[in-house]
Design a protein that fits this description.
The longest helix is centred in the middle third of the chain and has 20 residues, at 119-138. Helix 4 (119-138) packs antiparallel against helix 6. The relative contact order is 0.14. The protein has helices at residues 50-57, 64-76, 110-116, 119-138, 180-187, 195-208; strands at residues 2-5, 19-26, 30-36, 42-48, 88-93, 98-103, 108-109, 151-155, 161-165. It is of the alpha+beta class and 214 residues long. It folds into two domains: 2-103, Phosphorylase Kinase, domain 1 (2-Layer Sandwich); 108-208. Strand 3 and strand 4 (42-48) form a beta hairpin.
């Protein structure tokens, strides 16, 4: 069994004394619960499905919980990206269980937000998503899985909408091509590590402009 914490929370056992409040979502790889610490801090607790753990293990020697934590932490460490990335807190790996603690991002799913946002707010959001992608690529981080359901919009201190990413458990397609054709296209440089992010960015731009790529 191993428990690891982000530097910001390494002064205490991160999983000790957690109160599990309610289930707040689930996806193909995990269920997500709201958890509260003894200090009354609200966090997101990700519990990974056994099937997802096994599938990930077929492609990586790094445990799924650790993998997502490290991907999350690498992006959070990029100073300009920090406002757009959920804070990683800790991960836990044992023979039977894998889990990760992360900041609980308070806000709205992107698709819900843009349905009621003003045109200036949507333009701000498009600009921020574009900048997020540019900074991540400049730092060598690719395939951010920029799908609408992976983006929460919250208000910044100045009142502007801010897109926040919280899902980092997908192995980038240029690291593990999903099929032989993709591998060949990457080898021929007809696809690049940036390609999927560019495609998803265009979809998000259409969504923010009032399209239907939700």
């Amino acid at each position: 069994m191993s428990v690891h914490t982000h530097a910001a929370g390494a002064h205490r056992p991160a999983f000790a004394g957690l109160e599990i409040l309610q289930k707040i979502g689930e996806g193909r790889r995990c269920a997500v619960f709201e958890a509260r610490t003894a200090e009354d801090t609200s966090l997101a607790l990700k519990l990974y499905w056994p099937s997802a753990i096994d599938k990930h293990a077929c492609h990586s020697r790094i445990a799924l919980a650790r993998y997502e934590y490290e991907q999350n932490a690498a992006l959070y460490a990029i100073g300009e990206l920090r406002p757009f990335i959920a804070l990683p807190v800790a991960y836990f790996v044992s023979q039977r269980l894998q889990a990760m603690l992360q900041e609980r991002v308070a806000g709205e799913p992107l698709a819900a937000y843009v349905r009621r946002a003003s045109a200036p707010q949507r333009r701000t959001l498009r600009g921020q998503i574009g900048r997020l992608v540019e900074v991540a690529h400049a730092a060598g981080r690719f395939d951010l899985d920029l799908q609408p359901h992976n983006v929460i919009v919250r208000r910044s201190v100045d009142g502007e909408p801010r897109p926040v990413l919280f899902d980092f458990n997908k192995i980038p397609y240029h690291v593990r091509p999903p099929n032989a054709v993709c591998a060949i296209l990457l080898g021929m440089r007809l696809l690049s590590p940036e390609s999927r992010d560019r495609r998803y960015r265009r979809r998000l731009n259409r969504l923010c402009a009032g399209g239907s790529d939700a």
